[in-house]
Design goal:
By secondary structure, this protein is α+β, with helices and mostly antiparallel strands. About 30% of the residues lie in helices and about 35% in strands. The chain has helices at about 10-25, 30-35, 45-50, 90-105, 120-125, and strands at about 1-5, 50-55, 60-70, 75-80, 110-115, 130-135, 140-150. The radius of gyration is 15 Å and the shape is globular.
Length: about 150
């Protein structure tokens, strides 16, 4: 498996991974349609954010993306895997790659993310703390807002 910077030509594959991974958690088809725009990775995003893809046997199977929120803060925007790779430790590899990559940036003091409720425990394993809740379009559903101090 290899992690490398995504190319703008990868946008459709990354979008498919995002949608399949999100659907894995049992969200309704109607909800997935409502989230279509939010789950789409555009060529512009690939050019304006830092997006790294994970390939296995010449297939993109996952990715993560981040951007600088401030000079000292990074926001982890996405971290998704194809459903058949969820629960096999591969997400840990992606997260470790992300953390190692940003730790090389000496000015970064904090990482923020808005987690899917199903992923909160995953991020806690890496030292993230829940610092708030973000209301979503689904009634009584909140995204854990999480923070990691470096």
């Amino acid at each position: 498996m290899k992690v490398e910077k995504a190319n703008k030509e990868d946008h459709q594959v990354l979008t498919e991974i995002t949608k399949k991974s999100k659907a894995f958690w049992g969200y309704s088809e109607e909800q997935m349609i409502l989230w279509n725009d939010a789950l789409t990775i555009s060529e512009d995003q690939i050019e304006s954010q830092f997006i790294y893809k994970l390939t296995h046997e010449n297939q993109i199977i996952g990715y993560y993306s981040y951007y600088f929120e401030t000079e000292k803060t990074i926001k982890l925007d996405n971290l998704f895997l194809l459903p058949e790779f969820i629960g096999k430790g591969i997400g840990n590899q992606l997260m470790t790659d992300f953390l190692n990559r940003i730790k090389e940036i000496k000015t970064i003091k904090k990482v923020l993310l808005d987690a899917d409720p199903n992923a909160e425990k995953f991020y806690q394993k890496f030292g993230f703390n829940t610092i708030g809740q973000l209301e979503t379009s689904i009634k009584n559903r909140f995204l854990p807002q999480m923070e990691l101090t470096l």
